[in-house]
Design brief:
Blueprint lengths: L2 E2 L5 H18 L7 H9 E2 L3 H6 L3 H27 L4 E5 L6 H4 L6 E6 L1 H10 L6 E5 L17 E5 L8 H14 L4 E6 L2 H7 L1 H6 L14 H6 L5 E7 L14 H12 L4 E7 L8
Parallel strand pairs: 1-2, 3-4, 3-6, 4-5, 6-7
Antiparallel strand pairs: 7-9, 8-9
Helix pairs in contact: 1-2, 1-4
């Protein structure tokens, strides 16, 4: 029996990015392929007709490309960390129904998927935790979840499309706490500048009746802005549309390559990498 999802529910917010990852896989199979998303779409009872109609538009298809690049970039950073820390904890912050942890599984790492309890309830039904995997219901800003993570072999954390909905002080507090508790670990996430965040959150902010968009987390110069948060942070960033892949070799249309350049440039769309020092810089 298929898992039924109603429209206008929290569960529906999980279906939309899942459908996006499925479309990424069909449109750009050489850049990104999410077998889990393609399988889950077939196992969900939901009216996809509106999403299917929208998926024909050029801008929506560029949105699918953005999604593909983000997930591919984050997976690249996770795999890079696992090469030197094969027994590390791989932690998906705000996981939804994303299976990037499994896609990066090297056979020895430990996988953790974190999200709100109502989201994890859906995940448990559709993506029950496998061997060396744990689904953790929590609020990311309540750091009691730290105790659930076995970081004895290192820890790599990643967040896809999550921090845009956090206030800047919330991100700072979480990052600084992680840097203290998980020395030698790494956090990677996508970010963009204030203008881009305002565009991304336009509908959500309106629905939530939130006026102060400036309070939400945005980044222009990651190294300069985030290095000041803690002596334990080593900060770097790369454009997330063009920083990891050469789209000229992937049959991506010229107009999309142009939009990618605009995104990485004018919008500062980027993958931010925070390496947590094993000691404070001043003590090294």
């Amino acid at each position: 029996m298929k898992y039924h999802i109603e429209k206008n529910t929290v569960q529906e917010t999980l279906v939309i990015p899942l459908y996006g990852r499925k479309m990424c896989s069909e449109l750009y199979p050489n850049l990104f392929r999410d077998e889990t998303a393609m399988r889950l779409i077939e196992e969900i009872d939901y009216d996809f007709s509106t999403l299917a109609k929208r998926s024909q538009s050029m801008m929506q298809q560029f949105g699918f490309l953005e999604c593909a690049m983000r997930q591919s970039d984050l997976a690249c950073e996770v795999r890079d960390y696992l090469r030197s820390h094969p027994n590390a904890a791989v932690v998906n912050l705000g996981c939804g129904l994303d299976a990037t942890g499994r896609a990066c599984d090297n056979g020895t790492c430990k996988i953790y998927n974190l999200d709100f309890p109502d989201v994890i309830a859906v995940r448990d039904a559709l993506l029950p935790a496998g061997e060396r995997e744990k689904n953790i219901p929590c609020n990311l800003n309540d750091t009691s979840w730290f105790s659930e993570i076995d970081a004895s072999g290192g820890a790599v954390f990643f967040a896809a499309g999550v921090f845009y909905y956090f206030l800047t002080p919330q991100v700072k507090a979480l990052v600084c706490a992680m840097a203290e508790v998980f020395p030698g670990g790494k956090l990677v996430f996508d970010a963009a500048n204030r203008k881009a965040v305002k565009l991304m959150l336009k509908t959500w902010l309106k629905d939530a009746e939130i006026k102060d968009v400036g309070a939400y987390f945005a980044v222009t110069d990651a190294r300069r802005e985030l290095s000041a948060w803690s002596d334990r942070l080593r900060v770097s960033s790369r454009g997330y549309m063009l920083g990891y892949n050469d789209l000229r070799n992937q049959n991506v249309r010229k107009f999309f390559r142009f939009l990618s350049k605009v995104g990485d440039g004018m919008m500062n769309m980027q993958i931010v990498r925070l390496d947590f020092a094993k000691e404070n810089k001043k003590h090294e």
